[in-house]
Design goal:
With about 180 residues, the chain is mostly helical.
């Protein structure tokens, strides 16, 4: 009678010893589990950089897989969550994108990019008030973001606050725009 099975394969007898003739442990799975548990910040960033290269090369499926695999090591990697949200949005999966952006916002080390992308998603879906709140959060984190200022002005315009929008558009014109 089998009482338990070990984490790495094969049934155990009542004493906890492996039965003779039981399957060999799955060493490949055990090795992979140990590698994941030994993830270092450097290894996580290497995996993230590899996912970004796939993303930049336009290989969306491979990039999405690479971001998903990264979450096994770093489930709260804010930049990876944001980037995967961008991929989901590009595929027309707005709800999934929004959920990923919200996870990124809640993650340690989050930046204004997740707020910016969520704001754009809200603005594009007609939720101007929600977009306004997102772009205000962008400007708390990055006050000189010309893109954030301009998108806040757009959200205000779409919400019907034309005087406020005009003020923010004028401010956007006075900020030096970053060129990628």
């Amino acid at each position: 009678e089998i009482i338990a099975s070990s984490a790495i394969g094969g049934p155990l007898d009542r004493s906890g010893s492996r039965r003779l003739g039981s399957p060999a442990p799955d060493l490949a799975s055990e090795t992979k589990r140990r590698e994941i548990s030994k993830a270092t910040p450097a290894s996580i960033e290497r995996r993230f950089a590899a996912a970004v290269r796939l993303h930049d090369a336009g290989d969306e499926n491979a990039a999405a897989d690479a971001y998903e695999q990264l979450f096994a090591e770093a489930p709260d990697h804010a930049a990876a969550l944001t980037n995967l949200g961008q991929l989901k949005r590009a595929l027309g999966l707005a709800d999934q994108a929004a959920a990923l952006y919200r996870r990124a916002i809640a993650a340690p080390g989050s930046s204004h990019h997740a707020w910016f992308n969520l704001g754009n998603l809200m603005l594009d879906s007609g939720a101007a008030a929600a977009a306004e709140r997102c772009f205000q959060a962008v400007l708390v984190m990055a006050p000189e973001s010309a893109d954030g200022v301009a998108r806040l002005a757009s959200a205000l315009r779409d919400a019907g606050a034309l005087e406020a929008a005009e003020t923010w558009f004028a401010r956007a014109l006075g900020i030096r725009w970053e060129q990628p």
